[in-house]
């Protein structure tokens, strides 16, 4: 069946078995590599994307439910030339090791900070409980998200913040 | 020992055989992973040059007209940062500007890119920096000399008056300068200088610089880093495979009718390792496999469960094993000891479960060879195994190595494993490039585990509390036997990877006996981040802690007394203890534990502070770690690797195990095999000992001491010893 959705601001029409998880549509049909296949069971968070601003596990979300929705993947957060605040924060904190979990971490954090710009450490850690990292770079990921939060708050209030980079 | 091993490093991986791809071997491979403690760059004398004595800039360095310098990196970067590390070494000797540096994975070419500790191209054993250190410094220095000579000739000035700084070649007296890109084409025409002066460590600007950013961070945060999972060749199809649910099972019959009815399924093929479903896309391939009916023949399969295997191991531990080390007379010394401490340790099967499941794309070429895209870790093995499968020459097997989403040892196999599987499907299908994808369930069920191990240790103290005897019986499968590595790695029935860290322990024990039995099972096993040290260091460091307690001595002082000939182990032990505030009192319910170990010629000590509540719930409050890995190339990456290794070790020790019931694996995905979650990752402070000794690795050495430090801290807090891993087997939650 045909599904119409918006991906990173671009309208897309995809023909797919309605059961097909969003993840495989993004990767196989739309050629977007950012969302990763890690477990296929909603257990690791590597596939996390935003749907209408909420973090969603795309590996267990049927494309059927995506009619008319707005999907954002890590490719929608910025580019190498013009990185968004979340990307800049991850780069500044040198947070990635293998990097496979990182897009999912970034999308989870982006959704959190859009909803709760003043999310504290406990809220960040709670949100990230869904997302697994095997390399053990958790602490740098947390630092990166705190940095992004600072930058985003700073951008909103215009108040300089020494930690923002 | 090392030189002797290197001489035997003639890579000769035999043709695939029916029982896998392992059988038979003309020569042997050496694994740096298993280099004995007395090997390269340990406290014994190190060789002057590792690798060829001649500089080879043409193999490693590409300077483009746009002034970018690309270093061809012969090792897989699976997150350990080696692309950045190796590029830094070249940039330093080249006096390049970090901003102009790029990295690219080198092609598979054993003549140019062998790991000098393996004799073939491959990554593992924390060897990447150590085996590249000389060749990349020489390559960088030679390229610099060629750029200088080109500029000097162009400007008609003596080469000695030309300087290089941050990527600019300059003649100060005449105020002339040139960028690398302007000189590179002419420089490449010059003969490569055979003798180049290398920098003194005190002059390093990039090596050891904590502010260098990794080369992969931008692409890993915007989705442009290409992993094997992201490869899409024109016309590519996706395959998933059904494999025997029991290890050693084979296909008896296949009913593919329903699978072939699934929209998008293109074919169902029986291949040596199982039944492949080939489809237009990932989802169709997965649904096709669900619809497949395969009857398996379990005649040669493992039918036991873990507890039955352990019962068998316990019986074996009471029998004489193959002797790994026997100095003095441990039996006699134990008989005469004033105090004897005994313990049985159990270490479960463990999966690597890298975040990126195993996958590879294979495209058959008209010349009879093929091209492979994979997070390839053992290119040398893969080229030979695949060549034998296709009946072509190894050099006709082109391998495009791409970023790997973790490995922890899993992607390096002696039989090319999943890559050989992908080739077998591409060959059987024949119509299009094939992308083989393992699901997470395939990965958790897929074996190649850290072997199940049982240790029985008995140690004795004399009346003064001095350790006088140590007798250790080790039982666990060998993953070297039956492979081309066996000839070098298994001596007198002792697989060096099963006893490393025990039989060569640094503690001065006058009567030391270690033996090994390697029972066989169809369950496949493999090296797993830090290999034998994953279990030997734990048994050793927990046992030493118990002996210190039995002797009434402080755990740090007790260790230091027995490490008089090991200044680098003493160094990390003292530093970790000092930084952790060793000896300062802790409140009730909290405890502090320490462990120290050498692995892969690096030296690491961990101190853990834990809280244990009344339910036996362990919280790790703080971890302090000291590491001596010689000259540090990138301190930021060393910190990342050591703290990552710490989290890796702790996560598995807390609750992870692969268990079997009736031969079937009980776990299947991250819901039942649960990695460390971010709320459980403790803060880890990493302290690096300054050193100008030859650099050694850090990918694995952060693992061995982390879990025993936690276990010893739990003892300090509760008086309870954790002998069986994971901790849940020892009554912790």
Automatic annotation (TrEMBL), chain A:
Keywords: 2Fe-2S, Iron, Iron-sulfur, Metal-binding, Oxidoreductase
PROSITE patterns, A to Z: 2FE2S_FER_1, 2FE2S_FER_2
Ranges in a coiled coil: none
Domain called 2Fe-2S ferredoxin-type: residue spans: 1-77
Transmembrane segments: none
Top-rank taxon, per record: Bacteria
GO molecular function annotation: 2 iron, 2 sulfur cluster binding; metal ion binding; oxidoreductase activity
Pfam families reported in the protein's UniProt record: Fer2 (PF00111), Fer2_2 (PF01799)
Protein name: (2Fe-2S)-binding protein
Native source organism of the sequence: Azospirillum argentinense
Taxonomic classification: Bacteria, Pseudomonadati, Pseudomonadota, Alphaproteobacteria, Rhodospirillales
TrEMBL record, chain B:
InterPro entries: Ald_Oxase/Xan_DH_a/b (IPR000674), AldOxase/xan_DH_MoCoBD1 (IPR008274), AldOxase/xan_DH_MoCoBD2 (IPR046867), AldOxase/xan_DH_Mopterin-bd_sf (IPR037165), N-heterocyclic_Hydroxylase (IPR052516), OxRdtase_Mopterin-bd_su_IorB (IPR012368), TAT_signal (IPR006311)
Transmembrane stretches, start-end: none
GO molecular function: oxidoreductase activity
Domain Aldehyde oxidase/xanthine dehydrogenase a/b hammerhead: residue ranges: 222-300
Matching SUPFAM superfamilies: Molybdenum cofactor-binding domain
Top-rank taxon: Bacteria
Name this protein carries in UniProt: Molybdopterin cofactor-binding domain-containing protein
Lineage: Bacteria, Pseudomonadati, Pseudomonadota, Alphaproteobacteria, Rhodospirillales
